[in-house]
Every structure is written in structure tokens, then in C-alpha cells.
User: Fold these one by one.
Assistant:
Number 1:
Amino acid sequence: MSLVTALIYRRRLPVVGRLVQELLALYGMEVPAAVEIGPGLTVYHRGFGTVLHPYVTLGAHVTLYNGVTIGRADPWVPQEESGMERIVVEDDVCLCAGAKVVCKEGVLTIGRGTIVGANAVLTQSTGPGEIWAGVPARRVGHRRATAVVPAARR
């Protein structure tokens, strides 16, 4: 487990949580304590520039590269008035460098095993095992069934 990943998992500790948040900020990461994170998170390149909204849920074995942003598509609207409820990133998802996942209304779900390509801007939910790329992101492929390993087999 990398130092950054270890810090992310410790950001909720009662005594040192605030210090951990500041250490993550030195790496250019913003991961609020409210973000729910499953086991096996992998963060590459120290996650420089990664920002997660508090209403984000990351499943098991999610991979984040540097510059990933997961948040609201309407930041100018007060949080109480925003239609965004939550962004759910299911198990085994890979968000490549610079990927942006933004939600304006309801719950946006990234399906299990999905890959969001570098610098893609995803504004809609995806199915399992899909590959998304572009601005705005569109489905460009589908992962082979063998590429997504069930969590029970690990």
C-alpha cells in the first residue's frame, strides 16, 4: 500500500484526521472524510490533483490516476439546491489520468469494471465493463468478460 493510499484510509481517525487531510493536501489531493471508500483502493502517481466530492462512494479495488475529479456539475448552485444526490463508483473501476466524473442530477453510477479514459468527461451512468472516452465521454468499447475478475476470486 502506498503512502497516499494509507493516508486516505486514515483520514477519518479522530485525533490525526485533520493532520492527514493536510498531508493529503500537500500531495494536491482533496478526499473529504465523508467519502466512502471500499478496500483495495489504488492511487497512482501520488494522486496529484485528485479531488473527490463528499457525496462519493468508491467500491472495492478502484484505481485512481492523477488529476481525477469526481464531483458536481453545478458548483455555482448552493449544495442544498443541487439535484446531485451521489456518485457511486462500483468495484474494479479504473479512472485514468485527468478523468472527470460530474453529476448534475440524481445518482450517477459507474458500473463494475468500467474504464474511464484519460481526460474523459463523464456525465452519465455507465453499465458494467464498459470503456468510456472523449469529451463528452461516450462508450467506445466493452471489456472482455475475463478482464473483470469477480471480487470473490481474489
Number 2:
Amino acid sequence: MNKENTALKETPNDHPIIDNIKDRWSPRVFADMPVSQTDLQSMFEAGRWAASSNNFQPWNIVWGIKGSETYDRIMNHLVEFNQSWATNAPVLMLGVINTKTPDGKENYHALHDLGQFTANMAIQAHSMGIAIHQMAGVNFESAKEDFGFPEEYHVATAITAGYYGGNDNDLNDDLQKEESALRKRKKQDEFLFNGDFIERESL
């Protein structure tokens, strides 16, 4: 039985939030339609205006559209598990940080800032009907060498992008189950502390 992926998944939020956050999720299948460079530039512009410690903006994005050499080069650095489904995506990216500040000190906030960039980009993308899915499964060192980044840079994540849609049958059985699983998050009282940290057992 074919099952089409849809943009909306039920999100059991406990408090009101805007739809672009509530409805955003990270699929592994995408509609069979390209993402234009114009749309990508709108997504990148949203990321460009993310908050950044000392305005250092340590993020760097390598991107490629399916069918291009850059897309294939990024794909080559994904771990096998991610390659198995990321081929559904019309766009692949690498999120790269400069781990040094302009005066050569360690930038301990660079990963946080890249996260801000990607979150901005994801919300902008969702407003356009485009989903992104971030991946930790990337061969960091080989990607860094292939794309010519200096020693102080770190390839932190890979990212897929594409319009919501597609067919879950393009995935293996285990991933089909994950795609249809209910969304869940920790409750606020598991990570909020109005005072001292209290270790809590995970549910």
C-alpha cells in the first residue's frame, strides 16, 4: 500500500506556538520536484540573519542541487545509512563552522551559532513548503579535505532539503515506521530549572 508523505504531522504541544514551528518536521522522503536557487537563497538569507555571538557568523554552507557534481561529492561523504535515504532529496548541504574567532581564539559558541542559522533556515523553508533534515552521519574529515577547508574549520552536519511529499515506500521498513511514528519531545519540567539543576530520570 502506497503511503504519501504529507506536510503536516500531529504535534502534541502543551502550550501555544506558531504554526511554522509546530508543523515543521524532518522527513526522509520528499516530493519529486526541484528546489530552485531562488528558493534556496531565501532560505540562506533567513539563516544569514540568525543571532550570532559577537556577530562572528562562523557558519559556512556547502550546497548542491541533485544532478550536480557538488551534490554527488556531498553524498559521497554521508555514512551508508544516510546515503540510503538522502538520495530522495533534491538538495544536499554541509554545515561547516570556523572554530576560531577573528583573533585566533577558540570560538566555543560556533556550533550554537550554526544551530541558530539552521533553525532560521528550517523555519523559513517550512513557510515555503520545504522541509530540511539534519544529519550527524557524515565523514567529517574526508568532507573537510575534499572541499578544501583549513584546519580550524569543522564539518558539523549534513542537511537535506526538499518539498514535503514523496512516498514512504521509497524507504526500508524500519524507516517507514519512523516516518509514521508520533512526534514526541521531553516535557518542559524535564529540562527547565528555576534554580539549581536537579538530575531527573529520563522517561
Number 3:
Amino acid sequence: MHTPPSASPKITPFERAPEQVAFHRTELSVILSLYGRMVAAGEWRDYGISCLREVAVFSIFRRTAEMPLYRVEKRPKLRMKQGMYAVIGPNGQVLRRGQDLKAVLRVLERKLIRAVD
């Protein structure tokens, strides 16, 4: 029997739909700690979180209507390669990548030290 091309396969109760990548509570705690210090220093004003199929993104904004200043990305598929965490700059350049979230975020903490001076 031929199935028409418009028919989509149905997911049975025993199959799982593709999951989204998300930040764990402990990861968000580390990110939000840095975010709070940067807000207090007057550097950052807003953030957004996106949970997609292959990546979770924490976007940091100076103003709400702008493009993000920085993006903190979590890509579990890169865990065994370059590291699953990355900080991406405003022009799309990778500022730091690695396995340890705190170590990756240090690239942004340096900017906090400059902001206080």
C-alpha cells in the first residue's frame, strides 16, 4: 500500500519526540551570578534564553532592542571535541570554548574588572 507524501509519520506513546537542549539549574546559577554583577556595574540590561534542538543559548543585551552583545552557548554534541560551552562575541566570533562553564565565562569577567575601574 502506498502512503501519500503529505502524510506525516505519527509518534506512538512509546517513542520520544526530539528533546531540546537546556541549561541545568546549576549552569544557570553560574551564568546569572555573572549577569547580576554586570547589571550592577551598568554594563548589561537584558537577557534572553533559547532552548533549541541542538543548542541552548543565553543571549546578553546592553539594550532590549539590540542584537546580543554576547551569547553563551551549550552544545552537548561538542562535549568530546572542543567543549560544549562557548562564549560568542557580537560579530559571531568565538571568544572562548571549553568543558568548564566557569572557565569559559572568565572571558566576560575580565570585562567586569575593566568596568569597575
